[in-house]
Design brief:
single chain; 192 residues; mainly alpha; 85% helix; elongated
Amino acid sequence: KTLLHAALNELDSWLEWKKSESTTNPLVPQELKQSIEQDVQKNQEKIEAWREKIDAIDNRVKLGTTYIELVGKYAELMVDVARNVGGIWSHLLNLKANALENIEAKLRQAAQNKPSMQAALEKLDTAKQEIGQARINIENAKNEYKKVVLPGWPLIQFAKGNNLLKFALGDLDGAHAKLNEAFNLMTRGNQQ
């Protein structure tokens, strides 16, 4: 019983940490913060119910079955956390895409209608395409993270979302490199 209560204490502390991590991050949108808070509250209520169930254990058979049930409930909790973490990661990559999109627009405005800037404009075109592809991958990742639920295959959906975000990050890194190249061409005036 002591071990099970210790596991519940650990889960409760972990939930509080995840809630605090999201609520104190100014980059996390309010709707995602509210979703996380609701999930944490729902799971903390489950933890309290489990504490009562553990206190009522009076033999080894009940202890064993309660332990097995608790492992299953732990999986439910992990699914909620994974879904919320995926939402945060998607949002943060969207912010990066927004920043790169703003830089691309400013550089394009500076290079527009200047024949000597053709090579820089080509780099900006490539960057814009990569940002667009990243946005598609981010949106697809968000959709995969929404599927991280039980019953189902939450770990597979979470892995799919993670892979899509990796592709998006690669696209954004490529766009960033092209923006740097365009900037260098524009500042040096070297259009070779």
